Amino acid sequence: MASAPAAPQAPAPTLRPGTLGTADIAFFVVSAAAPLTVMAGVAPLALLIGGIGAPVAYLAAGITLAVFAVGFTTMSRHVHSGGGFYAYITRGLGRPAGFGAALLALLGYLAMNIGVYGLLGAQTHSTLQSLLGWDVPWPVIALVGLVVIWYGGFRSIDFGAKILGVLLVAETAILVLLAVAVLAKGGAHGLSFHSFSPGNLTNGGMPGVLAMAFAAFTGFESTVIYRREAKKPDRSIPRATYIAVAFLGLFYAFIVWTVIQAFGDEEVIATAAKDPSGLFFSAIGSYVGPWAADLMHVLIVTSLVASLLAFHNATNRYGLALAEEGVLPKALGRIHPRHRSPYLAGAAQTVLAVIVVAAFAIAGADPSTQLLIWVNTPGVLALVALQFLAALAVLRYFRRRTHSEGVLRTVAAPGLATLLLGGALWLVIDNIGLLTGASETVNLVLVLLVPAVFVIGLGYALRVRSNRPQVYAGFAAEPAEPAESAVPSETAPLAAVS
């Protein structure tokens, strides 16, 4: 008697397609930048270094990244992999560079995420102490934050998008409230536009402010990571990218300018020098009321939570993509059957963060000047380096293929972006001391870590090509079924990628 045929095996769960709209993706990107934290925590230092011309630095960074986005989003119509930057770099510069970029992306997103737990611990400790009189050790706060962020990443992506939407609106609203109050009262001495005069743009500290400004945009490129979960990705991803860059550039510049007006062109620098961390709180306390200053303290904490959740989700999807490529252990590519999230990648990331946070806590390190700065700085460098490599990859990709895209999008914009982002990378490296406040030895180690990781990636690519040629050949390959609205295949096959 013949045995009954085996029941067909249920397909493995996948990420949830068609879940994220343009606004959802933009929320992830802008939340990762943590606008309130950047403004209240970093903008006062930018004013001290660059003077009242600091708002222009944020505009310049935004314009540079908008130029980059022209070629980047054009190429996104031709690349449907969920691998983010490394997929673009692979297709433009070859597989060895793609492997190096993949490791740089992991370094960048992990570092940007883990380092912020130090700031979360320090800022929440300060807020609880000043508002409620509670003295909670920062490591305890950081570990609680790790659990909260893990859970947010474990749940479905639309759950995270809803949380980020609420938190981002709240932190943006408090800054808009400050700006409206300052403008309504005409500032300290009437509104002035001296911040945009040529004389204030030649301040010797402006290169350092530009470095800070580019660091404030890190994570904006993560729009493409959500391609597999996006609605109409060929439309929503470019739109979300432009919205994020335009919002951050204009919003940063506007808010810094309004804070200058709150104190006056002459007085703002002296006020910032006395208490940089209190500049925004002093402004909103004077123009709106003490209750608004207390609320801003609370919203900085929620801003950090939003940033951590956004980077956590982005890092999970990089880990998922690399596990599916065969670069990372396959277990990290498992997707939760109910929540459709890369839950094991999230668990692995959380365990790594617990180890790093615990190590800094046991060593008695300062959560802000050491955990945050020492871990975040290589992340900033890695992501700016990836932007530069991606701009170069876009330029080379379109030069090697027959396509119907215009010259502006495929030659002029990516060529200019390559030059501008190369300059931005140099500015960040040259002004690393302003970002870290650390010794020359520490700064050298932080800077050299980035090219070292890229070189390790190149070496790993050669090893994979020799020992696992199938994995190497399929690295950053197009999915079997192209995403919606995919363009026809280019003349040159993927096999042409070296």
UniProtKB/TrEMBL annotation:
It is found in: Cell membrane. The chain crosses the membrane at residues 25-50, 56-76, 97-120, 132-151, 163-184, 204-220, 240-260, 291-311, 343-365, 371-395, 407-429, 441-462. Pfam families: AA_permease_2 (PF13520). Gene3D superfamilies: Amino acid/polyamine transporter I. Its main location: membrane. Residues 479-498 are annotated as: Disordered. The keyword Cell membrane applies. It is a multi-pass membrane protein. Coiled coil: none annotated. InterPro entries: AA/rel_permease1, APC_superfamily. Keywords: Cell membrane, Membrane, Transmembrane, Transmembrane helix. The keyword Transport does not apply. PANTHER family: AMINO ACID PERMEASE, AMINO ACID TRANSPORTER-RELATED. This is APC family permease. It comes from Kitasatospora misakiensis. The lineage of its organism: Bacteria, Bacillati, Actinomycetota, Actinomycetes, Kitasatosporales.
